[in-house]
Amino acid sequence: GVAWCGPSAGTRWRTFVSGVLPPMRWGRGDVAAIVLETLAGLKLKLRTSFSSELRASLLEGELDVALVLLPEDSAPPGLVFDPLLRTRPKVAVRREHPLAERGQLTLAELAGYPWMIPDYPPAHRALISRVFIDAGLPPPRGAIEVSTVVFFDAIVQQTDLITVVPSTLFSALFSVRATDLTVLETDFVFPQEQVGLASVEIVYSRPNA
């Protein structure tokens, strides 16, 4: 996600946290340029962080606002969330993969190939495992463990790995990058997710009468 933290007393700096998912990364240059133009003399600190870490930083008062990924209609208690775009995970492989363009695939066919399921968000791995277990099949074991596929999609493009990617990777903004990946037709029903601005909910208390 993208987050930013207000300067403490006597300082002139802000923290700008740029997330790892595609819809969170494309605007970092634009945001940095706007900040530098409108707040002369301000220094920016750039780093990457997952949405779960940003939510914790918001609740701990380390950040004022963050651009995070959340399951739809599930803003954590204590946070105000303003959705900007929606995305849904997709199961994908390289275009030359033996399963590409095979139509609707069975779990047995999917189990015949190695998987690379990102650690974040953990709900994706849990959903895939549950579908396999409910069908009486062992869940796929990850041949490679990665934190997020966005940094490691090149591995998928050069192997027969099956992975899970955000649907935004196949949008017009990322069409060049996604040309070597294709979406598989599966029975996995991933919940819709949303990317938006999160901030701490401010509760005003009435003064004593």
Key structural traits:
single chain; 209 residues; alpha+beta; 4-stranded mixed beta sheet; 10 strands; 22% helix; disordered N terminus
Rounded Rg: 20 Å
E-strand count: 10
Please report the distance between the alpha carbons of the first and last residues.
Answer: 42 Å
Strand order of the largest sheet: 3-2-1-4-10-5
Helix content: 10-25%
Element string (H = helix, E = strand): EEHHEHEEEHEHHEEE
Structural class: alpha+beta
Mean pLDDT: 75
Largest sheet, in brief, is:
6 strands, mixed
> Uncertain spans, ≥5 residues at pLDDT below 50?
1-13, 18-23
Count of individual helical segments? 6
From the spread of the alpha carbons, the general shape counts as globular
| Portion in strands | 25-35%
Draw up the topology in text:
Layout: E1 2-5, E2 13-17, H1 22-25, H2 28-38, E3 43-47, H3 51-59, E4 65-71, E5 79-87, E6 89-94, H4 107-111, E7 115-116, H5 122-134, H6 153-157, E8 162-166, E9 181-183, E10 193-200
Walk me through this protein's architecture:
The protein is of the alpha+beta class. It is 22% helix and 26% strand. The protein has helices spanning 22-25, 28-38, 51-59, 107-111, 122-134, 153-157; strands spanning 2-5, 13-17, 43-47, 65-71, 79-87, 89-94, 115-116, 162-166, 181-183, 193-200. The strands form two sheets. Strands 3-2-1-4-10-5 form a six-stranded mixed beta sheet, with helices on both faces. Residues 1-13 and 18-23 have low confidence and may be disordered.
